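Re-run with default settings, no changes from the original entry. Doing this only to confirm the output is reproducible before filing.
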Amino acid sequence: MIRKWLAVTALALVSIVLLNTSGCARDQKLESITLSPSQGFDFEGPFAAGQFTAYGNYIHPPETKDISSIVTWSINIQNFGTISSNGLVTYTRTDGCGSGEVTATFTNGNGSVVVGTAPVVGPKNSSAQCQ
């Protein structure tokens, strides 16, 4: 009778270990980055600010999580504004012009680069004053 209980206990322990082990036995891999808000920001004037969040989309196992603190943030337009290390964009132009993209970049351990982007637009960008 004791042997039977030991066998059942051992089987239960092995089952728990196997259920908690990833099926593909690989490290989690970042596949893509999605920025939120995905439609970006239209800034109302100087010193207006907008907070972006970078979400990493992983496989092995599939998961989406906030990776804002581990990506490198940048803006691809000069003198548009500033961007903090956590994705806060502050519009600093006084002429109201300018548009571009905010980019969140992550380099995987194997050297591959994963990038996510979203647009940013100054308040007068569509007017003739910005031509």
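The mean pLDDT is 84. The chain is about 15% helix and 40% strand.
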